Amino acid sequence: MTIPRFDLVIFDCDGVLINSEELASEICIEAVKEVGLNLTMHEYADRYAGNPVAEIWRMVERDAGRSLPEGFQGRVDEMVFRRFSTELAVIEGVVDVLEAARHPKCVASSTQLPRLRENLGKVGLLDHFDPHIFSGSQVKRGKPAPDVFLYAASQMGADPAHCLVIEDSLTGVTAARRAGMNVIGFCGGGHASPGLEKRLRDAGALEVVRSMREIGQRIA
Prior knowledge:
It is built from eleven helices and six strands. The protein is an alpha/beta fold. The protein folds into two domains: 8-19 and 89-219, Rossmann fold (3-Layer(aba) Sandwich); 21-87, Putative phosphatase, domain 2 (DNA polymerase, domain 1), CATH 1.10.150.240. Strand 4 (163-167), helix 9 (170-178) and strand 5 form a beta-alpha-beta unit. Helix 1 crosses helix 2 (41-48). The chain is globular.
């Protein structure tokens, strides 16, 4: 498929640049058993991936039909921090794609800005984007609202119609399409379910790929 003209590439972070979505999903599927939700990693990622953390916990409470126990979120945050400190890694092929990219690029993620910068720094990607790193915490509404993508485009001086987004979640693809941007869906993360490709296409992704090598071919 021929990708329409683009002047800016906007990368989601979790599950696209780094393996954080997979690690967090592994932790959270164990944690939500405490409120009666028994989910596989694919089920968890399909339901919640791409949303701001606060929204995920609201969704979990809704799905469980009960409030989260006192201290629940803090315990999960601590477990995630410990796993990230030793196991956070770059998705295979990302560095090659970033080094070869000819277009301006930035990150637009649902993760809080300090944690987003910290995670990118841990895996050596911060210098590839800094200072062009944008978070849902900087705008009024998180994904699936288009705010963070529109904010990123405005800060980069780009027309949303000429932005190409790389996203791995239904929430993220929906947000990018609402921003008037074209999207490539990415299913190369370990959390990606067998049905994710169709879900991303149905949400409006131009196409869906399973490796960073394919991303590199399309943005070179």
